[in-house]
Amino acid sequence: MKTIFLGLTLFAAQLMFAQKVTGVKVEKAQKEVPAQLSKEKINLYNDNFLKFVDALKASDRPAVDALLSEKVKEIVTDDVLKKVKEGFDVNKKLEILKTGYHKLMDGSSLPSINYKYAGDSSSKEVIMAVFEEDGKILGVMPAKKDK
């Protein structure tokens, strides 16, 4: 008798504390990203990158800091700028190879422009610049492209 009473008590306790969940909807807030960058955005990003290259060539740290995003200003040291400057030839003229969005590991996408050296038909060396929406530079990645 005691075991039946104990069993009924446990069953009743589960029913008493059970909650009914209705209307659960999981939404992942994901920003809609257009397929291409607009001409105005491309011009803004390109102008800022070319100013960055000129400031890098002249070793003008205040001008470089003005073009960098607030997110990366603290981690960009003179050594980092020196490595970026050595990563590609700042004396050669650059032209836009490709524009689009760079997907980050957290799933978000940021605008980016890939540059190549003017007159270089092979496009083996590509410089990628990643921007914030307001035109500030988040990253510059010189890379060799294998074709």
* Alpha-beta classification: alpha+beta
Largest sheet: 4 strands, antiparallel
Beta content comes to 15-25%
Dominant shape:
elongated
Low-pLDDT regions: none
Strand order of the largest sheet: 1-2-3-4
Radius of gyration: 27 Å
Number of strands: 4
Please name the defining characteristics of this protein.
single chain; 4-stranded antiparallel sheet; 147 residues; alpha+beta; 4 strands
Tell me about this structure.
This protein has 147 residues and is of the alpha+beta class. 38% of the residues lie in helices and 23% in strands. It is built from 5 helices and 4 strands; from the N terminus they run αααααββββ. The protein has helices at residues 2-17, 39-57, 61-67, 70-73, 78-87; strands at residues 94-103, 109-117, 125-131, 137-144. The chain has a 4-stranded antiparallel sheet, covered by helices on one side. The termini are far apart. 14% of the residues are buried.
In short:
The protein is an alpha+beta fold.
Blueprint of the fold:
Layout: H1 2-17, H2 39-57, H3 61-67, H4 70-73, H5 78-87, E1 94-103, E2 109-117, E3 125-131, E4 137-144
Antiparallel strand pairs: 1-2, 2-3, 3-4
